[in-house]
Amino acid sequence: MEVNIIKSDKGELDFSLDNVTVAEVLRAYLSSENDDFAAWRREHPSKPVIFKLISEKGVSKSVSSAVSAIKKDCEKLRDLVKK
Questions:
Q1: Is the whole model's pTM more than 0.70, yes or no?
Q2: Could you say which architecture CATH assigns to the domain 3-82?
Q3: Residues 16, 50: contact at Cβ < 8 Å?
């Protein structure tokens, strides 16, 4: 998976990635954490996904928190499958 930062400010982040599934999971977790705005778009199926995040608490903290929550939920799922 390739991620390219397009624009990065304290409260705003734009980046592209080539996986729609990852974009949607990240958007769902960021939205559940009450960030100001989290969305992705893709102009054409052959083009990468453009993701936009706006957060007053800081995009770095928001993304880090969302990724940690995703990892935690994946671990829970893996443990359930092992049983």
A1: yes
A2: 2-Layer Sandwich (3.30)
A3: yes
